[in-house]
Design goal:
single chain, two-stranded antiparallel ribbon, 185 residues, mainly alpha
Amino acid sequence: MPGGSLHWPLWTPYKLYGEVDYIYGFPALEASNGFTSAQGVMNIVESLGYVAYLWLVWRFGRATEEVEGRGAPSSKLVGWLGEARSIGGGEAGLAVLIAFTTSALTLSKTVLYWLNEYFSGFANIGQNDALSLIFLWIIPNGLWMVFPAYMIYVFGQELLEALAIASGEPASTVPIGQIFAIKDE
């Protein structure tokens, strides 16, 4: 919060955000609203999940020129962060499961955050004009839905492909509808 020992220079932009979204500002603090603290705890859980995924990929993955995962950015665009890495076995399964679950947590928490605003009559953001709301709340918070949704899709495809292969079928020949079909025996 403004006036705190860590506010300058690290958290200066959050002064503006606390004015745009009261859940992060003095109104929520003064009302002893626990949502912000609860969300902070979940942010720690999410961060640990993403760190665990990255650690597994860097610890057990091997750099390769031949393989680029689904959704991998071009290494020309992002440098060493776009390095293709290949990981297999149980470590790969665990990495994908952690990333999928953590992405679902991020998306779910953000949807909950938006629903909280809607069902409270926009109590924390209703004071903003349309332009401020679009550029300082909707777009930044919308990205917390777009990117995790994309990650869920990518990691979900990886999980479905692994399940198809484990069933003995080539992944490319198993339609998604068939994966979920109930067989009569």
